[in-house]
Automatic annotation (TrEMBL):
It comes from the Bacteria. InterPro entries: Acyl_CoA_acyltransferase, GNAT_dom, Trichothecene_AcTrans. This is GNAT family N-acetyltransferase. GO terms for molecular function: acyltransferase activity, transferring groups other than amino-acyl groups. It comes from Cyanomargarita calcarea GSE-NOS-MK-12-04C. Residues 50-202 form the N-acetyltransferase domain.
Length: 202
């Protein structure tokens, strides 16, 4: 099954945040950072909302039509997923949403992920910040469809793509889309494993 893919409209950000929050609710890394289910749901909706608002104007956030079933957030070469103001906004709000212990885990992990990203991808590249499909629609080819606009553009521009993921099933999914494992980052004890992946232009 393929999906009709369009750019996300700003009016759809709240709904898109909800979809991403639901899609990542069982993600091992999010559960490690935010063990409390209520705090995790509240925090992830806030996090995804800020990321979506920060990147929507670039027109590289994709969803399905007529019904929003999934979201792909791509960050173009030379940009960050969050601006200084976006990072500041998260920094001010997260202590109230998460509490200090969970915030400390999240910041520590974010710094590690950023370190490997900068170290391993020093040339221009497309970054897949988030890909999530509503649980009711997973396994129907929607995720693959949402990737296609930027994968095709990256191929035409001869640029690589980069992402991080945290489940074996996601690794296998991305391998089917042409990504290869780049690194299994060294993480603190008790942190679930993560993989960084790279796709060279075809």
């Amino acid at each position: 099954m393929t999906a009709n893919v369009i750019n996300l409209d700003r009016a759809q950000i709240a709904q898109a945040s909800e979809i991403l929050s639901n899609a990542f609710d069982s993600d091992p890394i999010f559960r490690y950072m935010m063990p409390s289910e209520e705090a995790r749901r509240n925090a992830t909706k806030l996090i995804f909302g800020i990321i979506l608002r920060e990147n929507q104007h670039c027109q590289h956030i994709y969803t399905t039509t007529p019904e929003l079933k999934g979201i792909a957030v791509w960050v173009p070469p030379g940009r960050s997923a969050l601006s200084f103001l976006g990072s500041l906004q998260l920094g001010l709000l997260m202590p109230f949403k998460l509490g200090l212990p969970a915030l400390g885990r999240a910041l520590s992990l974010f710094n590690i992920i950023e370190k490997y990203h900068k170290q391993d991808m020093q040339r221009p590249h497309w970054y897949l910040a988030n890909l999530g499909v509503a649980p009711a629609y997973q396994g129907q080819g929607i995720g693959a469809s949402l990737l296609q606009p930027v994968l095709q553009r990256a191929d035409s521009e001869r640029l690589p793509c980069y992402l991080e993921t945290s489940t074996n099933s996601a690794v296998r999914f991305y391998q089917r889309q042409g990504f290869e494992i780049l690194r299994i980052p060294e993480l603190p004890q008790n942190v679930p494993p993560m993989w960084t992946m790279k796709r060279e232009a075809r």
